[in-house]
Amino acid sequence: MSTQAVTDFLEKVSEDQTLQSELVQALKSDNDREAVTQLGNGRGYEFTSEELWAEIQKRQAEFEQKRSAGELELSDEELEAVAGGEVLIVTMILTGAAAFAITVAAGATSKW
């Protein structure tokens, strides 16, 4: 069990739409932290709910630091891609903290 397993799991979530859907469903359960842990464990990523929570808190702190520093703005290339109708938004959002964006989006209903 390790935080590396959590990182690997969250990275996989960022790449796998089916897993993203399963994550959304897990986050709707009464004990969402345990449901997400079971989802990860079931996919071969061995970590505890405490390790998951520690990684989520770490990523939230990193996100807040970047947001406060104004580092979350889109580059000119990214703005052009969006303006041109290209579907690159997921790639832009997930850069650096791959699954963090998914967790933040789902965090609005999270009970953690």
TrEMBL record:
It comes from Leptolyngbya boryana CZ1. The chain crosses the membrane at residues 87-108. Keywords: Membrane, Transmembrane, Transmembrane helix. InterPro entries: CHP03798_Ocin, Nif11. It comes from the Bacteria. This is Nif11-like leader peptide family natural product. NCBIfam families: leader_Nif11. Residues 1-52 form the Nif11 domain.
